[in-house]
Every structure is written in C-alpha cells, then in structure tokens.
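Note to self: user wants both folds in one dump. Writing first protein now.
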Amino acid sequence: MTKRTLKNASLILALLVVVVLGLTGYYLVRVAPLIRAGKQAGVYASVSDRPSVAAFGYETENGIRRSIAGLNGKVVVMDVWATWCGTCLYSIPKMVELRNKYRNKPVELVGLDVDDGGWTKVKPFLQGHAEINYTLAVPYPASSFQLKSIVDLEPLGKVSAIPTVFVVDRQGRLAGKFIENGHEQEIDDLVARLLNE
C-alpha cells in the first residue's frame, strides 16, 4: 500500500467516524428523548396536575386554523393518526362510534393527521372514507417530523407511536394520553368523567 493510498484511507475512515458520531449524537440528543416522551401514556386525575395545551393549533380541511383554546368549554378528543398507518384505520370506526355517542354533548373529536404531506395525502384518503363524521385536521404550524411517526406536537405532547389519543378537559388542559389501540373504554370513561367536572 502506498503512502498516498494509506493517507486517503485514513481520511475516509476519519470522515466515517465523524459521520457516525454525529448521527449517534443526534439520535441520543434529539430522537431518543422524543421516543421516550412519546411512549409515556397516562391520565391526570388531579386537575392541578394537568398541563395546559390550549395553545396547540391545527388546520381543518377547509383551511380554517384553530387552537384548542377556541374549543373552551368542550372536552376534546384528539386522535393522532396517518393515512399509511394500518392500526390507525382500525381506530376510525371507534372514533365514529364515540362521535355518535357524544353528538349532543360538548365534546369535539379531531382526527389529527401527521402525514408528512399534510392535506395532499389526506384529501385523497377522505374520498374513500365517507364514514368519518368528526373533524379532520393537520397540525398548524406544521410540526417537525422524524422517522415517519415520531413527531413533536407541543404543547399537546410528543408522539412516537400512532394512533395516539389525547383527551383534553373543558378548560384546555391535558387530562389523558393513550397510545395505540385498545383504550376505547378508558377514553370513553375519561370523556364521561370530564363532562361531569
């Protein structure tokens, strides 16, 4: 091996080490904490423990921009989903049932799509899903996405698995976070309890 070849190999190796260290650092500093926070589910039984999420904003299909603060006085169920997510599709009929049950109550259901294409992906999807009877929206301003379904929806919360359902009390405070399917009864029970607060 010539001196020049050895020098080039050393430079390439050094560059690879820098790239690997940079990617590892990014993962450890930015992505791993987001995954951990996104997987933290829970219910805030005490009103004083509930963080305010009233500033969280979203945009509906017709371009109207809203925030949770604008829904003051309503219990909000925010179902975070994506068009490519098979388990999210399973939750659509459950959300329709919940909407039907609370149709005449101060409850707002919002399907919050986190596709990286926003409405360009959601609108074609809607053409095949006329059964959806609740508000569909995308985050506004657009959220930062990493690794498909890992998303920071501050101040609502972090998501690292979808579907994730956030339940917000009538004063715009986070009352519960449920990750993936199978929590329909817990969500229903929490909504009923919040309506009686």
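First done. Writing the second protein, which came from a different request thread.
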Amino acid sequence: MKIVQSAGVSELGRQAGKEAADLIRNAISRSGQANIILATGASQFHTLGQLIAEEGIDWGKVVMFHLDEYIGLPESSPASFRKYLKERFIEKVPAMKAVYLINGEADPEEECARLNAIIEQHPIDVALVGIGENGHLAFNDPPADFDTGFPYIIVELDKACREQQFNEGWFATVEDVPRRAISMSVKQICRSEYIICSVPDERKAVAVRDCLEKPVSNQHPASILQDHPGCTCFLDEHSASLLGKN
C-alpha cells in the first residue's frame, strides 16, 4: 500500500481522481474494457468530481459496480446510494457499457445472488473506496468478515456506522438509518487489481491511524488494505494528523 498526503480535501480528490482515471485508461488500453467499483458518501465528492472531468476515457468500454446499499431504503431517499451514483456520476458521464447497481428494495438474498453471478464474470481493474469512522471498508463494520468468498453479502450496521450516516446529514435521525445493508465483501474488494482509497477529514483521523499503522485485524476492517500491493490511500492533512503519533 502507498500513502499520498495532500494539503486539503480538494487536492486529495484531484490526485485520487487523476490516478483512478489513469488506471481506467490503462485497463481499457490493455484489455479493451475496464471493470470498476465506485463508492459513495462525503469522502468521494471530490474524487468522483475529478474523475468526471478527466478526458480520454472511453466510458462506453467501462463496466461499473458499486460497493453497498441499504436494505429497504427506496431510491427516492436522499440517502440512497443508487440515487447518489446516478445524480453525482452516472448521469454526468457518457453512457457506460454496463452499470450494476444494488437494489436495496429487492429480496436481499436474491439480489446478492444476482450480483454475485455478474461480478464473478468481471474481474475488477479499479476500485474506489473510503474508510469509515469505525474503520469499516464498504459496510463491513468491525469485526468484519475477512473469510467469506461471496462477492456481495448481507451485513448488520453497527451503532458507530449508523451515527456517522446521521452526522453526515443523510438522515433526519439515527433511528432512520437502516440497520442492514448489502455490502461488497472484504475479499471481493481485495480482488481488485488496483484500489484508490480516498479519506479526507479530521473525523477520520483515528480510523486512519488504526487502519494504517496497527496490525491487520478485522477489528479495523480497512487495515486489510495494508496487504494490497495495488492500493494507494489518499489523505489530507487532517485525516493524516495522527499518523506517526502512536
């Protein structure tokens, strides 16, 4: 894993978005197609914005998956990740070859089976991810399942995760945050050839320290990224503020 520290959140997003764009262009040049994973949430605003602005990407040769979605939340909700990706990314780039979004309103077991069959046919070239305040990777809250080989799984959201979603303004109350979600598994994320991890903001500083400097542990799920040779973690001065201070 490589760590890149930027002076601020906009510069973090610029660097992460440019790196992701280069990797996507390279995958298309090498294989004729790029299979990518996109994340959502406040941490991705600037990274996705830069990726949209990048030139020279043949989006008609890109297949997109996304990381996670709440179970039972309608797409009309401001907190819907499908809504987020459609409005903030999909509608802002030329039509992609294929887009596979998680339908949180479908039967969860059937939806996991549907997506698992698809993604197993699409080795991932580039995954864009973040790190939660509790150290989660996608919605794999601690203690995360590092063992399951299924690409998409049903997970329970812990209190810290749900409080983060509320504090970021996605829900009116903590109780409104769904307690379950469909999430890409840790193993599936780590199957990606390259991972771009964008983590801005001081409220992520403890999680960044724990996940990047402590031993790999399912109590700090994103710590697994330490072992990924193709992962670059982009931090700003605030999220990196506790590194080297153990």
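Dump finished. Worth passing along: The radius of gyration is 17 Å.
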